[in-house]
Amino acid sequence: MKKLFTQYALEFLVVFLGISLSFGLNNWNEQNKRDQLESQYLKSLHDDFKTNLEAFDEAFDMHLAQDQAVAFFLSEERFHAPYQVMDSVARVVTINWSYNPNMGVANSLIYSGSLELIKNNEIKTLLSRLPDIIVDYTEEEARTEKVSVQLDEFMIVNYIFNAKNKAEERHNMQMMHANEFYNHVVIIDSWLKEILSEGPMFRAKLVDFIALLEQELAAK
Domain limits of the chain? Predict the structure, then answer.
């Protein structure tokens, strides 16, 4: 009887150990898959946001160029500058350039429920907030773009591009000193101030996010 009991106990132990080992191995495989998927997401996020930072810098440089043109048309200098200068700056004042980041991987994580794959809570928090932060920033760009387009349309109707004689140049000078042109520039200036004020803070968030991703990837 004792021998039979020992045999049953050993068989039970073997079965129990087999099930436990199988269960543990499955858990390890699942966790390994999750870890690999997390690393892939982190790498893809890093690549996307490095590109997004470059795109931001390019767009912000264009805003700076437009701001310089706007400042010229709001200064007394416009009353004394030669036509060639006025014409050159007028072509810059209607610049339209928007920041359109690639959010494919980020949106996939956020809206597919895969965000829990990311173990770093700071990365998860920043990632979940980034869409709203981007929308807040690009709203100012959209307003600036709208007025810039309106000014561009005004110039298309009233401006003689590539003026060929003094009479056409005088016509263009009058248009650039007109109240409608000036008022458009004033509105563009007000929205540009918001962009140029918020831009450095927004950029700092992108840089911080990229740095967090790099730290997490280095720790893998």
Answer: 2-219
